[in-house]
Amino acid sequence: MSGEPTPHEARGLGADGDPSALRARVDRAGLDANGVRRLLRAREGAPAPEPGTRLEPLTDVDGRTTDMAVHVPEGADPGTLGALVLLHGVGGSGPATLPRFTELARRANVAILAPTARAVRDRSNQLDLAGLFGNRFDAPSWDLRGADFPLAALRWARVTLGVDPDRCLFAGTSMGALATWNLAMRYGDRLCAAVPINGALSMWETFGTDRRKRALLPNVLTLPLFVVHGAEDTQIPPAFDRQSVATLRESGHPALRHVEVPGGGHALETLNLADGAAPLLGELADWLAGRRRPGPAARITHRALDDRHGRSRWVAVRGVAPGAVAEVRAERLAADAVRVTVTGAREVRLHLGSDLFAPGEVAVSVNGVAHTVEFRPSLDRLLASYRAEADPALLDEQTVTLPVPAAGDGPDASRTGEER
């Protein structure tokens, strides 16, 4: 092959292929970093995935494997095809849950990816489910902190099906809805929406407010939510979702839909979502139709309980203090100026890209302490960042790590950061 690769070829080579082959073709085509960004985001000529339902193997970041049911609707528009990662409840499976949502796939032009949960290696990640099912709960479950099959399914959809990365969402029922809430609060920058069905932020709220989980709710203020709960659900009381919805509405959430189904219980078939003629399914499909992840953000506010979900777009916190809720507020003031405030973490990392920043000196203020960073865009770094996430919105051409000043550090200090 020679010349400029097609967008589909570039995404395949960049995510799972030979990175040196992609670099060679990019060089021959004379593309700079912005040209490669354009290529990786382009939707023209996207091949149509094979329609129908099939079973695929899926591997997560820890090397665990599971089965994933995949459905591509007949007649899907490949240029705008999105992906709905569907998370089942306790005792369920991806293949058993997927058929209930195929009509939604057709109406909303999304592929459905329904992985089957496996036992979580770190049992501490099951605490929410222990609160629901007892502290000896060892059944397959979702890792609520993220390093699991849902994110792997999202990556698979972008790479293998070539879905529009700005039309991806999580939806889940029961245990899967707990995971949907928690993953949306941690990784909302990957999504265009989230749809929790009969869920909650935390089952520990049976005994009182889970303040750490609720501290993450502001992270979804920019993420459209369609929250469904059966009014007569006795397994996960609808009051949990009512409280979350009320908090978000008080904070001014602009795209929040909350439906309590009269007479609906915990079983999915009681919610009028499985029937293709059900008004609620049509309402959800219409609500999803125009949803897209927004473009580059000049202002970011993000909270994190640990380093694993410390990143949002072009800024991340690192060294989150044990038991703390870290928060970062970052603002791009100009192409060569950034202001950052951080609490609860030791470091902040900037993921610099030429879509927002100009090469050369960038003035960075961290909690009032001034730094000067030399932004030197690297095409190799851009390709490496795509290989890591397979997400054009998370590309960077240089990372810079800066310390968060301890109390007493003066606002006029001048430092340089660790650059990569």
Describe the structure.
It comes from Streptomyces sedi. InterPro entries: AB_hydrolase_fold, Plant_Biomass_Hydrol_Est, PLipase/COase/thioEstase. The protein is an alpha/beta fold and 420 residues long. Helix content is 26%, strand content 27%. It has 12 helices and 19 strands. It has helices spanning 7-15, 19-28, 33-41, 94-97, 102-108, 127-133, 149-161, 175-187, 211-214, 238-250, 279-289, 379-389; strands at residues 52-59, 65-72, 82-87, 110-115, 168-173, 193-197, 225-230, 256-261, 299-304, 311-312, 315-320, 326-334, 337-343, 345-352, 360-366, 369-375, 398-403, 414-415, 418-419. The strands form 3 sheets. The chain has an 8-stranded mixed beta sheet with strand order 1-2-4-3-5-6-7-8, with helices on both faces. A 6-stranded mixed beta sheet has the order 9-12-13-15-16-18, with no helix packed on it.
Walk me through the topology.
Blueprint: H1 7-15, H2 19-28, H3 33-41, E1 52-59, E2 65-72, E3 82-87, H4 94-97, H5 102-108, E4 110-115, H6 127-133, H7 149-161, E5 168-173, H8 175-187, E6 193-197, H9 211-214, E7 225-230, H10 238-250, E8 256-261, H11 279-289, E9 299-304, E10 311-312, E11 315-320, E12 326-334, E13 337-343, E14 345-352, E15 360-366, E16 369-375, H12 379-389, E17 398-403, E18 414-415, E19 418-419
Parallel strand pairs: 3-4, 3-5, 5-6, 6-7, 7-8, 13-15, 16-18
Antiparallel strand pairs: 1-2, 2-4, 9-12, 10-11, 11-14, 12-13, 14-17, 15-16, 17-19
Helix pairs in contact: 5-11
